[in-house]
Amino acid sequence: MTLKVHHLRPAPGAHTKKTRVGRGEGSKGKTAGRGTKGSGARVQVSARFEGGQTPLFMRLPKLSGFTPRNKVVFQVVNLDKIASLFPDGGSINPDSLADAGAVRRGQPVKVLGTGELGGVQVQVHAHAFSSSAAEKIAAAGGSTTQI
C-alpha cells in the first residue's frame, strides 16, 4: 500500500482535548483563568486600553495635510544654468541636461526664468516652462517646445 497524505494521523497522545474552562468547579471552573477580581475578570477589556493613561493615539501628533498620489515632481533648471552649461546654444533636451549633470535622468524637467541667457540662442525641449522663462528664451531668439 502506498502512503498518502490523507492517511497521516498524529501520534497517539500528541493532541489532548481542549479544556473547557468555567463549566463548574469540578473541571477548571471558578475563575476560569481570569485571575481574581478587577475589570479583566469581569469584562473583556480591549488591548489598546492603557488603564486611564492618555491613549497612544491621542499622544501622537495629527498628520498635517496629505500627499497626492499622482503629483508630478519636476526637475527644475534655471536659464542662468542653461547659459553656463551650453554657452554655444543649440538644441537642448532632458537627455542633454542629464548628461551635463543639471537634472536626474528619467524625470520630467521644468525650465524656470531665473537669470539671463546673455544672447545665446537655444531650442529647449522640456516638459514644462514658466512664463518668464518662455519670454526670455523667445527674446534671445530661441524657441521652446513642450514635450
TrEMBL record:
Q: Which UniProt keywords apply?
A: Ribonucleoprotein, Ribosomal protein, RNA-binding, rRNA-binding
Large ribosomal subunit protein uL15/eL18 domain sequence ranges: 76-144
Renumbered to this chain, the Basic residues biased-composition regions fall at: 1-21
Q: Which InterPro entries match?
A: Ribosomal_uL15 (IPR030878), Ribosomal_uL15/eL18 (IPR021131), Ribosomal_uL15/eL18_sf (IPR036227), Ribosomal_uL15_bac-type (IPR005749), Ribosomal_uL15_CS (IPR001196)
Spell out the residue ranges making up region: Disordered: 1-42
Return the GO cellular component terms, semicolon-separated. Answer: ribosome
Task: Report the Pfam families cross-referenced here.
Answer: Ribosomal_L27A (PF00828)
Family membership, please give it. Belongs to the universal ribosomal protein uL15 family.
The protein's assembly and partners = Part of the 50S ribosomal subunit.
The job of this chain, per UniProt, is described as: Binds to the 23S rRNA.
Q: What is this protein called?
A: Large ribosomal subunit protein uL15
